[in-house]
């Protein structure tokens, strides 16, 4: 049956797919219709098969990833098994998670024009089309720039323009928010929404950051688990069904807050988006919960383990990266360092580790100036974990990788065995100590890099870019609970992150960097309820703060803090 007179442009019918390299099918008996002009969000835990569905839509299956197909998949009425990759590319345009992997041209203009050049479009028409499409995504003034000089958000816009130029019927976005800061992610969702509304495209978004996508309208949410579709509902129905957490997907924070307040969320509450939520229906319950008295937990003062005093750093005379940055971090804290891409966060981590030397100011470890200390000397107390584990790993075997730092420091083999065993046990890797690293998942490799730092018994662990990037809620919780246990054992942890949920739930202290300057240094709750700082640093005030405002709570910051305290107690229980 057609929906509201619109034909189905995507039709999966009893569709199954098994990669030749796999013993079991990845997709089982998929039945799904997506109608012309719909915007559909596909969610599911890591390994659920949601990306495989995307690969089937854009032709990567079967043309790049080979396997056995059963059943039927039609795009715009035509069986995909009867289409070639060129035909499919004219119907489905894909914007990848990693925009760098999608660039072909040396300039923005060349990259956008690639599909037109393939079609031998006349040059005058090509220039006109490229300019029009670039203007649609606000990149019209940067046509001569190199794609690799652009920010993460700009790169994504170029990739977007590259598929729009072909005037495809279906736009497929594969984890469009994965590498973007909160405000840039919001802009990306705005842009997708604008093209969907103004140009009547069919849009499919594969993403596990549900709340961020629901900032704008979505027609349906398709929930995938273990290669099967387990739910296909409107956002309002999905929030009322109470099944997201069961399948490793985090529900929006404001929905969780409603449940804490005793609200039985129903489709009639229109909780699919905060802007559509029936506030009068939930207001009394939220106010009552907020006003319930609660015992305040006093934070104990601890000695300062790391302090910066008027820190300055610049790569060149014209390019100042850090300007007059001062802060104090107490022993045993878990601290988030947040801000826009290019704000100076990673540079700050490099200065702390001694990879580059400050041009002014002082860095103090336990009250002692670190000036003049070598990288090796600093590494006795401070360990640094890079964003991408593949850039850190040097050895083929897990044990050897974890032991590398100790061996370089001349530690006896008997002691190495004991310390490596202990670190691998903490990281949940003890059963795999004799395994090759190539057999591990990305998340497990991340743990290997952390284990290789833990064997050094650091007092401070710095994680550059959130350790949870690209993880579903289940794996996110697993990694963060592991880091929390490390922190509780006495390791001070600094995390450079874009993840506002992580910042709220796990770090009590947040430092905000914008254009090389510190513009915020307070509790995570204070930072994420400060609209001015959020705007300056490309952050996003939490939806909990917005819910408090909508329900008439004057102490919105207190409401957010109550939610976090309640959540922490629940997690401990």
Structural notes for this entry:
The protein is α/β, with parallel strands linked by helices and 573 residues long. Helix content is 38%, strand content 22%. A six-stranded mixed β-sheet has the order 6-7-8-3-9-10, sandwiched between helices. Helix 14 (398-408) runs parallel beside helix 16 (442-454) and helix 15 (413-426) crosses helix 16. It is globular and about 70 Å long. The two termini are 48 Å apart. The relative contact order is 0.09.
Task: Give a concise summary.
The chain is of the alpha/beta class. It has a 6-stranded mixed beta sheet with strand order 6-7-8-3-9-10, with helices on both faces. The longest helix is centred in the N-terminal third of the chain and has 18 residues, at 182-199.
Strands side by side in the biggest sheet: 6-7-8-3-9-10
Structural class: alpha/beta
Count, helices: 22
Radius of gyration, CA atoms, in whole angstroms? 25 Å
Number of separate strands = 20
Question: What kind of sheet is the major sheet?
Answer: 6 strands, mixed
Strand content: 15-25%
Low-confidence spans? none
Shape summary? globular
Query: What is the terminal-to-terminal distance?
Result: 48 Å
Q: Which range best describes the helical content: under 10%, 10-25%, 25-40%, 40-55%, 55-70% or over 70%?
A: 25-40%
Mean pLDDT comes to: 87
